[in-house]
Amino acid sequence: MEAENCSHEEPVECDTESAKGTDEWEVDESIKQNWEKQQAELKNQLILYDVDEWAKLRLSGNNSQGDSRPLKFVGGVDISFVKGDKYNACAAFVVLSYPDLNVVYQDLSMVHLTAPYIPGFLAFREADFLVNKVKKLKRSNPELMPQVIVVDGNGTLHPRGVGLACHLGVELDLPTIGAAKNLYCVDGLKRDEKHFKQCSQWKAFTTGHSSGYDVNSERHSITMATHIATLKKPGDSFPLIGQSEIQLGVALKTCQDAKNPIFVSPGHKISMETSAWVVQLTSKYRVPEPTRQADQLSREYLRKNRKDST
């Protein structure tokens, strides 16, 4: 499979999730209210700190193969849609070995979407298909179960703080990470408008995961483009802090040639810092390998099985 050059990218855009499987199905307001209630209940179950031993080893800088519970397997999930078809898509779940990032397991299949797409409620459209694939692996090949799953979407970077990665994490009781290509514009976050306020409670990330840019400088607000320009090398990042002054995610430069960052946020049973760490560890190009492989394999599956695919 030919690897793309990460320098050839589209400009970063504000993502309202509208591009992914948008349809025109009408949804009763009571359904949305029920979904919001479910999201509120799920939010109360979120664990946004490191739970597993492999994640805690990050703090000690000791995650070698000599450890009893190192990071060995990382999962990735994505759904690719059939062009012009609002009902059918290919769901993909892959597992990569770490540190070589080879695909050791893949499960791809066509799925029939039975729920409408509404911005902010992506999980109610996609989560069940992805959850079932992970549970299938746990039954058939538990020795290949990933210790963390990277999701093509968002975790806490979401209008109600519960994106697709959060849903998957709680349903599976596994650490999950949201890694989005475009910024989800919530809580006042905007791509090219002045919005970053001086934040007195923000603390710098651990060494290696901060660009060194002083958010608490005399400039009380700067543009997203200016923030991105401070990212000079892989591993550089800055926090995504909205009008609420709550950190929702991280903008992370994953490879040297990447003009735009990946927008990372924790889903479940993992911290913000470790989420960025995992995404950086698993990135050869701009998009982390777990979701890049899931995306490429699902698109290839559609090309082979659907003449009308994207």
UniProtKB/TrEMBL annotation:
One of its GO terms (biological process) is DNA repair. Gene3D superfamilies: archaeoglobus fulgidus dsm 4304 superfamily. The keyword Nuclease applies. GO terms for cellular component: cytoplasm; nucleolus. It holds the Pfam family Endonuclease_5. The keyword Nuclease applies. Coiled coil: none annotated. InterPro entries: Endonuclease-V (IPR007581). Residues 1-23 are annotated as: Disordered. It is found in: Cytoplasm. This is Endonuclease V. Keywords: Cytoplasm, Endonuclease, Hydrolase, Nuclease. GO terms for molecular function: RNA endonuclease activity producing 5'-phosphomonoesters, hydrolytic mechanism; single-stranded RNA binding.
